[in-house]
Each structure stands twice: as structure tokens, then as C-alpha cells.
Amino acid sequence: MTLSEKAYLAIRRDIIQGKLAAGQPLRMADLSERYAMGFSPLREALSRLQVERLVVAEALRGFKVAPLSVQEMQDAIDTRILVESDALRLSIQHGDDDWSAAIVAALYALNLQVERSIVNVWDIEARHYAFHRALLAACQSPWRLEFFERLYATTERYRIPILIAAGTPSPSRRDIQAEHSAIADAVLAHDAETAVRLLAEHYTRTAMTISARMATVAA
């Protein structure tokens, strides 16, 4: 892994986790000290993150963490529904036994982590990502999977910090694991229409939860 790749992954992780706050200036000297890297790999990383819309550049001011807004969050989730619905249909069409087994394993691992007595949001998040990625893994479209990665990162910027601030790893009044299980059941049954509908409803509920919590924080 190159220094540029290491810088990219480190800064990207800290933005998604909220350790680098929305709107925060990203000064080279500060980043160099924080990540123990030179300016060149950091500049390459920031340029790459700008393409992913996690970072914005300002004339004569350098880079800063992209701001957050309800409108952007909703747009990102709406686009996720479009991209992932299409990718999920293709995965159901092309998926084999190994793909099905990977979905079962990812869901099982996620459920185990959620049920642990000591809840770690980041451990849950890693398995949450693995489950959603497994659903689309057989789509045979690198472009769709790349868009999934970008949009997932964008929406997690909203979901994770707000859930941590609320003091719970999952929204109240929702059985998210039941939602995941229902999606997996439809996928494994090769019921594309039901699977796509359940996935869209899952993301729509998440968007509503985030919007409500952002409004509470703003108030």
C-alpha cells in the first residue's frame, strides 16, 4: 500500500467517523502531524476525497471537510436506492451458491455482533457494511460496486455520528436486524421484486431517522 493510499484511507475513515468534523479546515501542517506523513501523499489523498465529495476545495484556502445537510443526505440515499436496486437485481440474477452462503455468513456475523453485551458501534458498522456489500457482490458490475462504496461512505457520515450522539447503535422503534433478515430472505429466495422493495424501505426509514435527529440537534 502506498503512502497516498494509507493517507486516503486514514482521512476517509476519520471523516466518516466524525473525528474530522463537517466544515473543519484540513491544513497540511495539521494533517502531517496527525498522520505522520509528508505533504505529497496527503495532497493526493485530499484530491481523491474531493472526487468522492467528502472534501471540498476553496480557492486560496485549501481543503476542508465537506459540510452536512439534510438535502445532501436525502439525495445520497435516494441515489443509493437507485444504484443498489439495480445491482441487487443483477446479483439475484447471477448469484451462485457461494454468493448465497456469503450473505448468510455476513448476516450471521452482524447479528452476533449486535447481540453482544458490550456494544461497539464500529465493530457493528464493519459487519453492517459487509452485509450490504455481500448482497451486491454478484452483480458483475465494478462501476455499480464503486458507486455503492462512494454512496455508502457519504451516508455513513450522517448515520454513525448521529447514532453515537444519541447514545444507541440503532434507532428506536425499529428492529433493524429483522429488516436485514427480511431482505436476505427475499434475496435468497430469488424474489427480486420483494428484495428491492424491502431494501428501499430500509433506506427510506434510515433517511427519516437521520432527518429527525438532525432537526433535534439543530434545535
TrEMBL record:
InterPro entries: GntR_C, TF_FadR/GntR_C, Tscrpt_reg_HTH_GntR, WH-like_DNA-bd_sf, WH_DNA-bd_sf. The keyword Transcription regulation applies. Pfam families: FCD, GntR. GO terms for molecular function: DNA binding; DNA-binding transcription factor activity. The keyword DNA-binding applies. It comes from the Bacteria. Residues 1-68 form the HTH gntR-type domain. Keywords: DNA-binding, Transcription, Transcription regulation. PANTHER family: HTH-TYPE TRANSCRIPTIONAL REPRESSOR GLAR (PTHR43537:SF20), TRANSCRIPTIONAL REGULATOR, GNTR FAMILY (PTHR43537). This is FCD domain-containing protein. It comes from Pseudotabrizicola alkalilacus. The lineage of its organism: Bacteria, Pseudomonadati, Pseudomonadota, Alphaproteobacteria, Rhodobacterales.
